[in-house]
Amino acid sequence: MRRLRFLKIVFALVILSAVLLGAVRIYKAAKDEPRSPAVAAPDNAVRPPNTVFIGAKGKWRVELAATLDERARGLSNRAALPAENGMIFLFNEPGRYGFWMKEMRFPLDIIWISNDQVIGLSENLLPEGAQPKNIYYPPAPADTILEINAGEAETFGIITGDVIKLGYEE
User: CA-to-CA distance for 21 and 16, rounded, in angstroms?
Assistant: First the structure.
């Protein structure tokens, strides 16, 4: 009788743990949903950003990774990225989000940004196949990540501390 009662308690605890774990995962997924900031366009309409300015050093036309699927896919399987173009990832909360070079066909520079300021760079990251061995992390929690062609960070002289601005251009 005691054994049966003990087994019922253990079973109830296992079920409760599974429910709590599921709730935590749902909460974390909701918290990590991409943020969709809006910027004023020239016609005064509010649109998602399509341009990143880094000080007076340069500007990049960017594609916003706006969904979780777009974040996971990133620039994978694309043949190339035009010069001074990139992909931007915006997070609601700063974090140490990991990025990989899975199924990339060209090298990248990753610019780690927090509160509109460059906090670090990962440069000349080489493509990896379907099973990437490396995951790259910011040096401190970041809320914005910009991927650009390898070598552009050096060419434009981007350094830690540079200020970035999101914008919209026709």
Answer: 9
Rounded CA separation 135/99 (Å):
5
3-state secondary structure of 132: coil
> E strand or H helix at 4, and its extent?
helix 2-31
The token pair that represents 152 in the structure block: 């552009």
Give me the amino acid identity at 146.
L
Beta bridge partners of 121: 111
The fourth-level CATH superfamily of domain 39-167 is: Protein of unknown function DUF192 (2.60.120.1140)
Q: What DSSP character marks residue 130? A: S
pLDDT tens for 19-76 read 444 433 434 444 455 455 555 555 555 677 889 999 888 899 999 988 888 888 899 9
Question: Each residue of 89-121: pLDDT tens digit?
Answer: 999 999 999 999 999 999 999 999 999 999 999
Q: What DSSP designation does 68 have?
A: H
Q: pTM value?
A: 0.75
Find, among 63, 71, 52, the residue nearest to 111 by Cα: 52
